[in-house]
Amino acid sequence: MRNDANEGPRDWSQIARKLEPVEVIDDPVTVKKRSRDFFWYSPILNAQLRRSFGDLLLRPKTREELAHCLQVAHSEQIPVVLRGGGTGNYGQAVPLKGGLIIETTAMNRILEIGEGFVRVEAGALMADINTALAAEGWEMAMFPSTQDIATVGGFVAGGSAGIGSIANGPLRQKGNIVQLKALSVEAQPVEHVFDADAALQIHHAWGLNGAITEVTLRTVPSRDWVGCMIGFDSYLACYTAGFALASAPEETIGRKLCSVVDARIVDYFRRLEGYVPKGHHLVVTLVPREHMEALRALMATHGGVVHLAMSDAERAAAKLPHVFEFAYNHTTLQVLKSDRSATYQQIGVPDPSDAARVVAMRDRQGDDVWPHHEFTRVDGKVAVADLPIIWFRDAARLAEINATYEADGFTVYDAHVNVIEGNHMQPDYRHLAWKKRLDPKGLLNPGKSVEWEKVRHLPAEEIEALAGRGSAADDPS
Ligand SMILES: Cc1cc2nc3c(=O)[nH]c(=O)nc-3n(C[C@H](O)[C@H](O)[C@H](O)COP(=O)(O)OP(=O)(O)OC[C@H]3O[C@@H](n4cnc5c(N)ncnc54)[C@H](O)[C@@H]3O)c2cc1C
Predict the structure, then answer these.
(1) Pocket of ligand 1, candidates 42, 69, 82, 108: which has the most ligand atoms within 8 Å of its Cβ, to mutate?
(2) Which among 90, 60, 183 has a CA at the least distance from the CA of 443?
(3) 89 in a domain, yes or no?
(4) Helices and strands of the chain, counted as H and E runs
(5) Total domain count, the chain
(6) Exposed, middle or buried, 11 (CB in 10 Å: 0-12/13-18/19+)?
(7) pLDDT band at residue 467, thresholds of 50, 70 and 90?
C-alpha cells in the first residue's frame, strides 16, 4: 500500500526533541498498550493487528501543541494515528505503519454549555461531559456505552449511535452534530470549521481526514431516568415487547435505551446475580420516572416481569453497573469476561416490526449464535440492529453465519475488517476529498482506506465528484 510516509529507520529521540514541548512517551510497554483498541473482540482482527505498534506516544495539552505534532509529522513524513480512549472495535486506532500515536485525552476542556448544545475539546470523556451537563439540567442527546473511557472526538470519528439514539437518532441525523473543528496535516496546520451537514464530511471517517480539535453536539433536557430490566419466557414475547416499547409515543413512554437480550447471554451477566433470575430473556431500558407505570402496564401485556427498576442513585448505592453496560457492545464484553472464545457480528434487521422473521432467524442460526437487538430511530422511524454473540469456531463458520443472515435479506456490517469501506459501507468520497485537502501526504491512519489508494492522485474536486456513487452508512455498534 502506497503512502508518502518515510518508512525507513528513524532517530526517534531526535524526533522527540523536535516535538518539544509536547509530552512524548517512548517507553515501549506504554506505546504498545496505546497501540491497541478493542479489536481483540474479533479473533480475525486479533491475528492481523496484535503485532502492529506505533513508535512514540504524544499527549498534546492544547490545540497549538496538537498543531505542532502534525507539523512535525508533515515535515518528517511520519504516519500519525489519532487516539481517544482506544475503545473502537475494528482496530480503527491501531497504527498499521508505526509512527506517532497522538492521544487527545489531555485536551479535555468543556468550553461552553448553552441552550441545547455543548462545545468541548475533542479529548473530553463523555461521562465528564454528562456530569457537567447534569449540573445545568442537560444531557448528551446520545452517548456510547463506553462513556467512562471514550472521548467525544473518538465517538464522532469512530462511533455511530448509542444510549439516546432510540429518542434522538444516530449521530449522523440532522442536528445531532452541531459543529466540528479539525486541523490539517500541513507545513502550517490549519483549523477548518464544519457546521451542521458539513460535519458529516469528518464524522465517522476514522481520523483519516483531519485531527478533530473541538466538537459541538446537541443536548436535551435531563430527566429522572430509571434503569429497568424486564424478564420474558420467550424471545418472541421479549422482542415483541421491545418493539412495542421502541414504537410507543414519546409522550406516553419516553426512553433512551431499548434493548432485547437473549436469555443465554443474560446467564453470563454475573453482576446481576440476586437481581435478575437466570433463564429469562430481557428487555433492558431507561425510562423517565413519570412513565414507569405506563412501562409496567405495557410490559405486563406481553407477559413481562419487572425484575429491576433503579434510579441512578439507587444503582450507585447498590454498586451495580449502569443498565446500558448490559446493552450495545457491552453485552459482548460481559460474555468475554467469562469466556474469550466469544465474538460478535453486526446485523441490520430488514423489518423491525416482523418479530416472526427475527425469531425464525434466531432458530435458523442455531446454538452458536445468540442475538441481542438494539432499537434506535432513524429520522423518526424505528430501526433495529442485532449484535449477536457468536461462539467462534473458524472463519469458514463465520462466513456461513453471515450467509445465513444475507440469504433472508438481513445486512451484515462485518465487524471483522479493518478498512473503513469494509463493514458493508460504500466508499465515502466526501471523506476522501477532505482527506486530500487536509492530509495531502496521506499520513493520517494509513492503510485504513482501500479507496483512498485508488483516488489519492486525483484533485479533491474530482474525488468529491465521485460522491454520487455512494456514501458511508454507519455501522450499528
Ligand atoms: C464495550 C464497548 C461498547 C461500545 N458501545 C458503543 C456504542 O454504544 N455506540 C458506538 O457508537 N460505539 C460503541 N463502541 C465503540 C467505541 O467505544 C465508541 O465509538 C467510542 O466513542 C470511541 O471513542 P474512543 O475515544 O475510544 O475512540 P478511539 O477508539 O480512540 O478512536 C476511534 C477512531 O476515532 C479516531 N479518532 C480519535 N480521536 C480523534 C480525533 N480527535 N480526531 C480525529 N480522529 C480521531 C481514531 O483514529 C479511530 O479511528 C463500543 C465499544 C466497546 C468496546
Answers:
(1) 82
(2) 183
(3) yes
(4) 17, 21
(5) 2
(6) exposed
(7) confident
